[in-house]
Amino acid sequence: MSRIGKKPVAIPAGVKVVISDRTITIEGKLGKLSYVMAERFKCEVKDNSVIITRPSDEKQDKATHGLIRSLVNNMIIGVSEGYKKDLEITGVGFKAQVQGKILNIQLSYTHPINYNIPDGITIETPKPTQIMIKGIDKAQVGEAAAKIRDYYRPEPYKGKGIKYAGEHVRHKAGKAVAGASGATGG
Q1: Rounded CA separation 65/63 (Å)
Q2: pTM of the prediction?
Q3: Where is average pLDDT lowest: 70-79, 114-123, 137-146, 168-177?
Q4: How confident is the model at residue 87 (pLDDT cuts 50, 70, 90)?
Q5: H/E element holding 75?
Q6: Identical fold between 3-80 and 83-164
Q7: Does domain 3-80 have CATH number 3.90.930.12?
């Protein structure tokens, strides 16, 4: 039973929801998003909230019901508040800066990495070791953050790399030094 799908999605003040055929268009102070629902599902605005109903109790319909409700909820939050992901860069000489529509990242490679900033996303670098990704589409913000993080994931020995703010990287002990207990070269 989809408990998430049954919950109505509250519409905050300043957000406008328009439903035409299968397309849900949500407009707020930060922008406008739209989503095309699956054919069999119905959506309506009632008592300042969005209610999604499913056609049957089949397993696939239950799963899709919860998905559509979550997507609509994410769209409402996106156009009213927006989404933000913070990344931290750790390592000697590692830095990032925004140059127009390109994020220039200096890592331990022989060349700088240029990441083209997609439309609908804004990237800021308040410090050379900090990247802030903002946007109204939750999936797009998360995908941009994941792609940037994949250029140099944090490694477990020294902790160098790009990580999410607040992410804990487990450190491993390095190689044990061969001491006096061992064969002597001779």
Answers
A1: 5
A2: 0.84
A3: 168-177
A4: very high
A5: helix 59-80
A6: yes
A7: yes
Q: Give the H or E element holding residue 68.
A: helix 59-80
Q: Cβ distance 117 to 101 under 8 Å?
A: yes
Among 20, 143, 5, 2, smallest CA distance to 73 is for 5
Sole residue written with tokens 């590692």: 94
Residue 169 confidence class, pLDDT cut points 50, 70, 90? confident
Lookup: tokens for 20: 């035409």
List Cα–Cα distances, 4 to 9, 14, 19, 153, in angstroms.
10, 24, 20, 33
CATH class for the region spanning 83-164:
alpha beta
DSSP string covering 94-147: -EEEEETTEEEEE-SSSS-EEEEPPTTEEEE-SSTTEEEEEES-HHHHHHHHHH
Report strand pairing: 102-106 vs 95-99.
Answer: antiparallel
SS3 158: coil
Closest CA relative to residue 136, chosen from 8, 32, 24: 32
> pLDDT of 110-140, one tens digit each?
999 999 999 999 999 999 999 999 999 999 9
Q: Give me the half-sphere count of Cα atoms (radius 13 Å) on the Cβ side of residue 181.
A: 2
